[in-house]
User: Fold these one by one.
Assistant:
Number 1:
Amino acid sequence: MDYPLPTEKQGISFSQLQNSALFVFGLGAGVVAVIVFAAAAIWGSQMEFPIDAGRSVGARIDAVVDWTNINGDWLFSAIKIVVIKILITMEDALLWMPWPGLVVLVTLISLRLGGTFVAAFSFLGMMGMGLLGLWESAMETLALVFTAVTLSIGIALPVGVFAARNNRFDAVLRPILDGMQTMPSFVYLVPAIMFFSLGNVPAVMATIVYAVPPAIRLTNLGIRQVSPEIVEAARSFGTTPMQLLTKVQIPMAMPTIMAGINQTTMMALAMVVIASLVGAGGLGEDVNRALGRQEPGAAAIGGMSIVIMAIVIDRLTQGVVKKRQDALRGT
Amino acid sequence: MAQNSTSAVADRSAESEGLVVQKNLVKVEGLWKLYGENQSLATDAAGASITKQEALEKHRTVIALKDVSFSVDRAETFVVMGLSGSGKSTLVRCLIRLIEPTAGRILVENDDILQYDESQLVQFRRRKVAMVFQHFGLLPHRRVIENAGWGLEIQGISKEERYERTQTALDLVGLQGWEHAYPRELSGGMQQRVGLARALAQDPEIMLMDEPFSGLDPLIRRSMQGELVKLQRDLKKTIVFITHDLHEALRLGDRIAIMRDGQVVQIGTPEDIVLNPADEYVEEFTRDINREEVLTASSVMDKAEIVLLNSQTPKEALEILLSRSLDSGCVVNDKGECVGSVTVDEVARASKAGSTDLASAMNGSTKPVSKDTSFGQLIPLSLASDRPIPVVDDDGKLVGEVHREKLAAGLGSRNHINNVD
Ligand SMILES: Nc1ncnc2c1ncn2[C@@H]1O[C@H](COP(=O)(O)OP(=O)(O)OP(=O)(O)O)[C@@H](O)[C@H]1O
Ligand SMILES: [Mg+2]
């Protein structure tokens, strides 16, 4: 029921600790710098590191991935089935409607959430994609992105909520998320292929790893930002932690969570071309093929389609965010 | 007003006879709250004598509450007052366990709420107690009626019943017509009415109010205070009211506790606090208080020296007054209700005229006043009258009389004044 107040930590000793740690660190850095410069002066650029551990560490990671691949087979198969199922459902849903239906629908939604300009842009953009013969590719990409985003939300909400309620977990999570976001996205492709072979599934999985951090971060932030006075008032009436979460914290954090989902979607779209390297279809594959065949025109058309898609989705989700914010402000 | 002594008596008898019904609803015993490194100060012998400053410097520990004890009677408005940082908010939050105390007991109807597990605590917060906050704590995305119905909603009460009960509460605080507005559309005063309605909709026995009117401008604050007094007259809730404003405390409180550095330095009725401040700290608070508004007839009245019956003849009355060498006396009827007073001159004239009716003698009689009459009202009455003013209780029964000299003394120094208890 009672979450530890940040202020109840023993702030005094901590800041002192920080100061002395900083001092020791500075001293150590100075000593190291002197040694390095001395060594460089003596051996010049010929100097080698005493051992070369790159190979053996890499091999160790390989071994871990191999082991996981063999022993986690049942898990990966299960994930694969689920992801394929979602992908197919999404794609069927998108292709079920003849193109004029979808164009009209998206234009109307754009009109409502973004206004005339966004609506016009959506209409022209979608018509353009269709007229350039990219409709099916676009739908496949959309299905891929939506699947990755849906699964990302499924991961980000519970993880973000837990991080908001548990400072220690948050402290551990933060550097991991930083790493996930800065790691070149290519790196995720290798284990993704090993666990899920080629196709749309490893593409979705790699996309999730790359795109999920902002959704987690902003869910965490959004919940932490809910005014402590409101939380306190709600609790004083006998609100259970679950009610607090579903009726106070999540609704109030919604604009921030939506902003996270918006970013996650944009990052998923950025992964589209890279994901095609492991066999994902859609616009990414078109661009990739154009690269192989040295057809700059086709590459440009595919790339433009991705950009248009990103802009439309961005404006629509931001429209939702704004509506939520207005609702929270009570206007 | 004089609940102090009576409640103590009621307590003792209730305890000795093991009665379930007892007058005080909330009882706080030896409550401590420490923030920081040395939590054992609360139970140590060392803690008892340490000052807030020492604890902070030597033990890196903030003493927010230090050995606080008091009890609140049913239907009483108990005001806690003190400067910023004296521990008022901490105290009131401990009463609903938004803050966990370090040591001590909080008994509500003889149940130690600090022993409650999570589900008992939730039930306690849903049934027994409701809180009103300084910054309102309303949900911005919910309409007024949904905000005020919050407590009922989370109990799972059906929408119909919820709306009905919430509407009643909104009517009580004068918000009819605003049910579907959003908090942002309301002024501060009206937002706090929503906060008040939200608490009232729960129909709690105990209401905790942490500086509910401090954020409002002075005019609104005064009118909200007035409305709270009016509401309380009908609802008779047990209220713990936090404020840093002595005027507010005096206006609302049946009793007032004054806090400094986490300790309670004095508990007493408003008159008590003004007339007999326990130390310089309290006196400092009371310095700019207008005594005329705080002091009432009951704090300066004397026991009536003589009581005449209206069935007596003027002649009999004259004899009685002369035999006691008194200038005047109060007259009561056979039910004990005061009907006025007579002077020696009046009865002498009436008996000379041969009248047998004492009532006919009471020409210049002053009307009896209620014992809650303020000095401000008493003074002109007293100046216009040639005799002491009879004081009656709510039933019209004579309880004493006010002499002019006593009034003057009450306005000046605080000696020569009755201790109200
Ligand atoms: N979370 C906390 N950590 C450390 N010290 C705290 C904490 N909360 C309160 N305190 C300290 O406890 C003491 C009492 O605070 P409290 O908020 O109860 O005062 P208050 O009387 O309500 O003051 P105000 O009139 O400003 O609201 C203060 O000295 C404050 O600094
Ligand atoms: Mg306070």
Number 2:
Amino acid sequence: MATIQELERIASQIRRDVIRQTHFVASGHPGASLGCADFFTALYFEIMDHDPKFNMDAKNEDVFFLSNGHISPVWYSTLARSGYFPVEELATFRKINARLQGHPATHEGLPGIRVASGSLGQGMSVAIGVALAKKMDGDKKLVFALTGDGELQEGQNWEAIMFAAHNKIDNLIVTVDYNGQQIDGSNEDVLSLGDLPAKWAAFGWYVIHMRGNDMGNVVATLNEAKQRTRQGKPVVIIMQTDMGFGVDFMVGTHKWHGKAPDDSSNRTSTGAVGGNTGRLSLSLRWCHAPLSQCRYINLSSTIFYNQF
Amino acid sequence: MLDKLTFTEKKATRDGFGAGIYELGKTNPNVIALTADLAASLQLANFIKDFPERFIQVGIAEANMIGISAGLTIGGKIPFATTFANFATGRVYDQIRQSVAYSHKNVKICASHAGLTLGEDGATHQILEDLGMMKMLPGFTVINPCDAEQTRLATLAIAEHYGPVYLRFGRPSWPVFTAPFQFQIGKGILMNEGADISIIATGHLMWHAVEAAKILATEGINCELINIHTIKPLDEELILDSVSKTKCVVTAEEHQMLGGLGGSIAQLLARKLPTPMEMVAVQDSFGESGQPQELLDKYGLGVKDVVAAVKRALARK
Ligand SMILES: Cc1ncc(C[n+]2csc(CCOP(=O)(O)OP(=O)(O)O)c2C)c(N)n1
Ligand SMILES: [Mg+2]
């Protein structure tokens, strides 16, 4: 069991990785990756029973599916940091001949990925399929999935939501990244989700709220969600996050949904990361030096990262 | 004539679409623009600013967008449904097939970020099958312009044309070189006359065909260059005229070989004028993340690949 402080420290590292990956290739989606870093950290370092040796079949282990595949940077960092593949490979993100595709893919054999995503609205259905298979096999482990909030505008989600309740898929925990933002603006401006928790509840799901950028709350809520499984209803966590959380000039706007920080954003973020663990210091310009010389400095812990 | 095929600026073909739809906003009150949370990528900013009442944001819900577009046509509106090419075709194929194609509705499906040149987002977004899917739908017109100017003209032209249209364009900055040429739906463009071989290209690969022809000219090989922007209906007359003269063909496109322009031309020639032919196209594979030019090279769509294909075709003459 990791302490909340340890988890916060890992989440900070993952946030640095997100910025590094996207800055390095001047593309990718930092916004919601930063917002979801606490969730990913808790899931892979505390909540899920999973095996980084990676077996596609996922027998007798918990599995996770990312439906909003554009936030691949946070997933890749989490997978690397929890031992699925070498951390140095993060430097190949979005480059030609790499396993770290812009959107998660199985095609190049990256450990940790079990289905491609990127075209929105499909991941929950796949997660339901795995959850059904686990039930058929008497496998007691759980299936987790993450979806964006804007992504819920895709009708397929609601087909999946209806199916999961009807079929009592109660070994499934879906989390919604409820950051209120999407590409063309806020959910409210683009296409309102209305009373989202009430909608899930009306479809027959057990609904839990979570403060997604408060590690203590994330861990407690995910544990509560686990308690709620196997009671005849699928479980959904409405996870309130801030897009760009942890980097002051990115926080709370959709502008960084799919835009990488460039050298004009070379500055030190003062945004506190994960409560009181300290600051995320970014010196992006250094990334033009050979990778081995690139480093991030965590001011609070004075740890020097000379690799990813 | 070859040296007239030059460019002074580069622009994305989607910029040409943005300019075209904005002009239509001013001139045609029936034109409605729709998007599925990709207004900026589709260059709709000016249209939205000046014609907000004719802009419809449907959210991330492409199937709904196609259905709404079909409905809008009843009574005379001309909906331009816009999103990335993958989500504009494969994602909503049955909605297009039933509500638009089979029902013969005047919907313009306008799709950006087609093909490998989308770049870093990778294979999930790099559709290479869209021309095939869309050309198979009875009654559909399918257009794949080769630069920003041609895309602008195509955007204007499809508003005047009654019937369902798929207009495909892309993301990268690309040479703008078609200013001297007119645009007419269904009419290919003879860009350069040559006696030795016909290179028939569409979309971004047209520029590679031009560059290849310039290289080949230095080796004494005179290429006839034909631009086919309208994949369907195909300008059979222009193609047959050229091929009956040159007696060998290379096609070039940013698409799977199966189902692309090359396939259409092969079917035409097999029926009417069997001719040695080589195809520059993606060979039954998905793309991947990377920079546009790197990807074109890796997947065999570079200038050198066009040159090599010409030599193979000539050897079979
Ligand atoms: C089917 C489909 N349509 C459109 C897109 C383009 N797209 C990528 S991310 C995105 C916005 C997603 O919003 P949300 O789920 O809220 O994610 P966030 O912006 O919060 O990361 C869109 C429209 C896509 N990837 N797939
Ligand atoms: Mg969102």
Number 3:
Amino acid sequence: MNYHKFETVIVGAGGAGLMAALYASRGAQTAVISKLYPTRSHTGAAQGGIGAALGNMEEDHPEWHAFDTVKGSDYLADQDAVELMTAMAPEIVFELEHMGLPFDRTPEGKIAQRRFGGHTNNRTGKPVMRACHAADRTGHMILQTLYQQCIKNNVTFFDEFQVMDLLINEVEGRVVGVVAYEIATGELHVFHAKSVLFATGGWGRVWEVTSNAATLTGDGAAIAFRRGIPLEDMEFFQFHPTGIYKLGILITEGVRGEGGVLINNEGERFMNRYAPTVKDLASRDVVSRAIYLEIRAGRGINGQNYVYLDVRPETVNKYFAEDGVQGPDGKPKQVTAEYLLKKLPDIIDFCKTYLGIDPMQEPMPVQPTAHYAMGGIPTNIYGEVVIDEQNTVLPGFYAAGETACVSVHGANRLGTNSLLDIVVFGKLAGQRMAEFARANDWAPLPQETWEPTQAMLDRIRNSRGKERAARLREELRRLMMDNVGVFRTEALLNDALTKIRELKERYQHIAIDDKGKTFNQDLIEAWEVANLLDIAEVTTVSALARRESRGAHYREDYPQRDDEQWLKHTLAYRQPDGCIQLRYKPVVITKWQPKERVY
Amino acid sequence: MADVFQATVRIFRYNPEVDTKPHWKEYTVEVEPTDRVVDVLHKIKWYQDGTLAFRRSCLHGICGSDAMVINGRNALACKVLMKTLGPKVVIEPLRGFRVIKDLVVDMEPFFAKYRSILPYLINYDPPPARERRQSPTERARFDDTTKCILCAACTTSCPSFWANPHYIGPAAIVQAHRFIFDSRDQAWAERLRILADRDGVWRCRSVFNCVEACPREINIKKAIAEVQQAIITGSRDL
Ligand SMILES: Cc1cc2nc3c(=O)[nH]c(=O)nc-3n(C[C@H](O)[C@H](O)[C@H](O)COP(=O)(O)OP(=O)(O)OC[C@H]3O[C@@H](n4cnc5c(N)ncnc54)[C@H](O)[C@@H]3O)c2cc1C
Ligand code: FES
């Protein structure tokens, strides 16, 4: 057995984990554990931008950003957290710039900004330029920059180590470490810590069509859940309106921010009908539903399950003129192919590579794609994990980034707010966990540390059933797409739940081919499938209970938002017998009473 | 699907736990023309032979996990479509690194070189309250080299690197370029000194396999030439 002792242990090396590491390592001995080499993390896939009311292009205010976020969340976000995040946004974007992040620039040399869905001028209701970006690879730049800073500051990394368990000292009621599996050798490592942060990212892989990496399997959330920690608001999972048809690869909202429009089979710019003011730049839940409704009405392209996203310069300019969009000089705004090529090089490359289509010549076939987990491990604004309706802190345990639920995104996240979330709350959590480590003594490890993980792995390795984990995963992902996607009903959800439980039963009878120790991904993937199954079950149970429609959770049998009954967060607990119990906690409201949401 | 075809995929296999030396294994897979090579590797791993090991994550050419040698050329398995390869495919691990298992190689020496060029912005002045100003032209100066995803496709395609594993290689030079030509950086001279070392930028023999290998289409030839030029002139204002 390998044994390590670090005051603070950070699990995950995406934007949230690395930002936390930079701050935690200033005050405490810190280790970062990641199943991927840090620069492979999916933060690197983020394209469009990070939101901050810098006002570099036009008038803007953090308060507007806060209101847009609350409205976008369909009033489920905790408003204290939203106000904090949006107020910190400008300073943290400047901090990233100081670290070296190569943002695009305005002619005066300031950070360039563009429009994004749901971000508005609160006086006029029109889209505002708030998304700070580096072409369409903003996430790549954030990930690179933060990793560079970690190198500069000599942060200790355990790369390609997969955390599989959380260690809790039940007597003292403290989290005291993790167990990790070293992928190259198959050995287990026990990390004893004073404070542990989970920053393990999302779980888009639960659905068939997704923008998420193959490795986004919800490990951190599933581990915490199995250790009795609740998961919050799991019914809220965002489908991004524009994934490449069938592949799910994301086409950033920045395309519509630059003027691209959605078109149905009749050549109509249909968002005019669904969101007359902001049109194609409505919130993602609204746009994804609109696309599905068009498809259902037979207006998908050639009757198929997709619509067009058109960013050809002539189309963009036509609708700019129609909408009266003006450039900085007050004249009607115009774009050229050359400009778009500079602003959207990667998505143009994706289309050429995967579709053989040049978006400057042809429209892109798109469909909604499973994208972002609004729910997750509940935390307060310091990243401390809170485990009940009273927000009681579980000492020593922290979560940040997509795997956490602060909640700043409520029922629907606005674009550019996740990159902001990961750096703001990564920073606050990193600071806090180092303070905790300084202020507290070591608590002993529990009696059993690595043994349950070893037993679990041996079970998978030695199991002689006939089921292949990959087959179960394939069935699960299709089921979740059909039954627990953009449109939900009681019948669909019940059916999903029955089938998920059958899949869980079949999972008991899997067998793997690879029995070895070296880089055994067969084993790891089988373990990850267990996580997907658990996450799918909590999502479905939470969705079944919520008899209303709010943000990304749309129940055709309960199409209205119901603030009287449902203005509250779901907390899902796993009981010792494996059943899931649901409890609820109130939403924090500071300034903005729930109103009807129109775009 | 009309155009489904059978592909024969020959894969380099090596598991140090059981094999004394590497060997080839052939798989027959039904593929669609638009399948990526990584999809084909998944079909093999998931439904035929779970012992096959290869890295991958994002599946769309952004994370740099799955550079490998496909029909003799370095590429990302997630960016090559089967229709460009036809029914016979040969897949090997990147050259010049120790094989851990099958297509998985030990990247540590590669990252060590990356770290050696001080891959972070160095600016000794106290930062202003807002952003440091940088004109669009200054920003454009190093735009191309910010695209690097550290996949190692370039370095492992380079004959100079094969001949001398100490050569710092194109990836590290590209990364250095990204900082040397950033108007905000003040340690460019130090990086130039590092790259002027005998295992530095002068080991480049202008073969430029790297240019073709780069999945991000970075103009590596230009980046290397600019770094060399900066060393000669002692200035980054070329
Ligand atoms: C294609 C795409 C585009 C996007 N564009 C934008 C955008 O423009 N603006 C925006 O605001 N948001 C965007 N988002 C959302 C945003 O990028 C993500 O929500 C955010 O980057 C998540 O960061 P993270 O640090 O929480 O997780 P990740 O970056 O996903 O990192 C997770 C980390 O956890 C590690 N890990 C996971 N499980 C384990 C385990 N068991 N053991 C050890 N380590 C583990 C991984 O190795 C990885 O390092 C986009 C998302 C996608 C998919
Ligand atoms: S899997 Fe990320 S680059 Fe291919």
Number 4:
Amino acid sequence: MASNRTAPERSDALSPIRKLLHSSTLRNWLLLLIIWEIIGQLRLVADGALPAPSAILARLWVDWSDYPPHILATLEGASAGFLIGNALAIAAGVLFAIFPITQRLARGVNVALFALPPIAVSPILVITFSGMTPRIILAAIACYFVTMSATVTGIQQTDRRIVDVVRAYGGRQWKTLVHAQMRSAIPSILAGLRIAAPNAVLGSILAEFGGGGRYGLGVYLIGSLGRGEPDRLWGIGLSATVIAGLAYLLFSLLATRLTGASKAVTVPASPPATKAEKNPLVEAALITVSFALPFLLWGLLLSIMGTPAMIAKTPLGVFDYLFMMPNSPASLGKLAMALSETLPMTMIGMAMGLFFAFALALCSVLYPAIIRGFMPVALVTQTMPLVALTPLLVLILGRGPSVILWITVSVTFFPAFVTMAQGLSMVSRAAIEVPKAYGAGPVKQLWLVSIPASLPYLFAATRLAVPRALLGVMIAEWLATGKGLGNLLNQSRGYLDYGMIWSVAVVSVLISVLFYQIVVAIEHRVLTKRGMAPAQ
Amino acid sequence: MSAEHGITINHVSRSFKGRGAVVQALSDVSLACPEGSFTALIGPSGCGKSTILRLALGLDAPDTGDVMISGMTPFKAARSGKTGVAFQDAALMPWRTVEDNIMLPLDVLGHKRADYLAEVAKLVDLVGLNGFEKALPGELSGGMRQRAAIARALITRPEILFLDEPFGALDQILRRQMNIELQRIWMESRATTLLVTHGIDEAIFLADRVVVMQSKPGRISRVIDVPFDRPRKPALFSDPRFHALEKEIAEALDGQ
Ligand SMILES: Nc1ncnc2c1ncn2[C@@H]1O[C@H](COP(=O)(O)OP(=O)(O)OP(=O)(O)O)[C@@H](O)[C@H]1O
Ligand SMILES: [Mg+2]
């Protein structure tokens, strides 16, 4: 699912970096920098909210002594989370790949972990745990899904012929895993880790937004937001980006070092596994368990930790709070009000982000020069803790509703564009050239080949965009507009209204999961009708 | 001659459910390869040759009927290290060097590599891959990969050897050479061998018996004995009796 961005690049892990250093690209970047400098010097954007690069660097120089404890704190949370999250993810991935039924059982947990907006659970984590733990948990969650699905894909895509050789010598599950599957999954896992690394940094920063702790780049960022010093904010944002980028680079290098020799030498021709007959009763049981499991785990975790029920609400506790208490109607009303503000924004922002991404990706088929110029920029944003940079947008765009749209569009656009452009670039030349040979013009080619062929990637991009859009809206509401779920969360934090904190978290996770499931269902219908497989 | 120690295939049927359609890959196939015999399996593409091999290796299970290898189930035979196999496509692990690929069966069976180093060198020499021991499969030509796969099939000194078009990617000259080498190896080891091939000449040159299959549904249509003495010399390829047999098999393949 989220690993869709890992697969196409696997063969050439460093290509984005190489593209960055390409001379014409380098020129574009320089140009961008110069324009930025001029805009900054002339204070053209929102009266200096976008400072010149030179000013940011100067400020960074002045503030430099403040940075080390913040950077260290963020790194500590991020790397502990990275280690724990990925260890769990790889173990889970192996389990899921070997016993597919476990994957179906854990589907609810997996989707919830993928779709949960980190900002929504960060206050919960801060009130239930202490110290570094919230950061570690969010960083681990940010890594989990990418690496887990990369592991599953890697193992499942093991060349069947190689597995057969091991099995022909009497090797069963364990031997096959050791000699064939784990090794052949390494490139995929590394590609997953490459994306997980900046994710971990982002997770840690988002947890820091939720409070708790004096140090961390997120703490520093939030603390500086109120002081209206754009150049400092930008300095912090850039440092976070550089750290995330370095983490990405580290794993890119590792991947190219380790996986040079792993490409299959011929195309495997083993037939696809035939699907077993489905028993509707078993199916229903599986779906029920998969749905109930996240709630069971949630209750179980809390009861193991023994946090007081006042603070830590179990699923039942949340239900009580929303439906059984004297002031339940009031709480429900607040929640519904916030939802009615958040949902439209999320949908509009997501639709706009996806639309721009789709349009630009299609343009890049017609005019490949666009992709060459723009792709490196888009790829860099993959490593940026973009969501963590939203305070900068708040600064530029003010606190009106437009900031929400901008933030949502910007957090959905880039990953969607990268997914779609990479998908489209894999549409075979031959397929495009057939209509061309019959004299079809560019638009006709798009209509006949590129658009139908890009459908799986459009859906993959949408799946990816759903939780991001909600996250973007909630952060904007939290930091800027004072409306919607994000604001309700922030307020409840102030009033120590624990029931509401939990309710908002649960509702936003449920909404995200619901959206996600709707996309998956539509995707399934549309693609099966056309005999296509979902893009991983 | 004792079926106890060879390959016994008893009224085996196997069908595959594709999308909607059912493919009858094998329909009531029976075949006994006595210990130490060399059987060639020939037939049109898709007639179920590879499926027979997969059943005999325990990679797949028949719908009805049973398969015994040396009096054991295929899986037990495989686990005891009695069998060796070279698949239709080389199926080398791209991350292992040629040497390491050849030693893969040892790793799976839990044998000590150190006991087999001389054997590896001998096999590398035999298949003409000297100097490429440390090469990765990606750096080899298709034919070289196939030769590495043959060496891998022989590393455990198998009692039962399964070869699925092992020389498919080789040129005619090399193929003849490998045929002669294979005969020599077989005469030394006397492993019960089942060779799948598309080459009629190869089948006659190597086998005691040629089993001709037909497709839709996959079945055995004729078994033709090959009377020539061993060791067979390359001159045999131009013998009139050889040509007569070639014609007979070609006709059997045409369904006459
Ligand atoms: N796992 C599978 N799933 C579905 N159909 C299969 C499977 N394996 C084999 N078949 C079908 O069974 C039939 C026999 O296949 P098999 O690979 O045994 O043919 P073969 O005789 O080895 O052909 P070739 O000479 O081309 O290698 C074919 O029609 C094939 O499509
Ligand atoms: Mg075959």
